[in-house]
Amino acid sequence: MSSPFRSLGLALTLCCASLATSSLAYADQVRVFAAASLSDALDAAVERYQQQHPDVEVQTVYASSSTAARQIVGGAAADLFISADQQWMDWLGEQGETLGERGDLLANRLALIAPRDSTLEDFIPDAEHRLLPLLGDDERLAVGDPDHVPAGIYARQAFEHLGEWQELEPRLARADNVRGALALVEQGEVPLGVVYSTDAKASEGVRLIGLFPTDSHPPITYPIALVGDTPSAAAQALRAWLASADGLAVFEQYGFSAAVAE
Questions:
Q1: 7 among annotated binding-site residues
Q2: pLDDT digits over 38-59, tens only?
Q3: Which domains, and CATH codes, for the chain?
Q4: Which GO terms are recorded in the biological process aspect for this UniProt protein (predicted)?
Q5: 178 labelled as ligand-binding?
Q6: Local structure of 232: helix, strand or coil
Q7: Cα Dmax for the chain
């Protein structure tokens, strides 16, 4: 009959071995804060990267770029930040955060969408095709909040360019991020919404009505940067891979294009 102390010692040994195995499962960890519009594509890219680098654990946090930037300034641990516009990357640096290897990663387009069963004909939103007449008396147009969400900021710029901002502003259904605006259209809560073309492609519940002219708003680019004074080798390696041909190929499958270097 074994001693209870021997049994206890064996149990502790097995427990310690289990903990050691768990801690060694991932040699490195990289935390990525990214714009909500990247969720599907970045998840797929991370999955491919971890298949190639099984010793690295990549954790992703998605929110509007403004929320993600504020979370980082508020103390959230982040190794990489990918914003949906330059403004919030600039703001993060202005708050004293060290941004390393900053560069433009991806490009996107601004899209007008409707619920899947909408009978609205496709068109290009421009000065000859106004949006307000398409809304009923009590209907609204879904956008990311133009006060802070990049997709909403781009939408406001497009509306201003087309001369409709004053009329459309009180008719907006403002969402906390672009995926929130997409959901309002998917659920039929609104007849129209403005999101990125990649959001429209990712959803089976909406129809792409048309893309806004590229000259109606500034170029939609997604800057990427390492966060912190001493970025880890694992974070640097992931940042380099995301910008590589292999990484960009994943994003292109989801409708993004590589940012054009100026």
A1: no
A2: 999 999 999 999 999 999 999 9
A3: 26-107+221-258 (3.40.190.10), 110-211 (3.40.190.10)
A4: molybdate ion transport
A5: yes
A6: coil
A7: 91
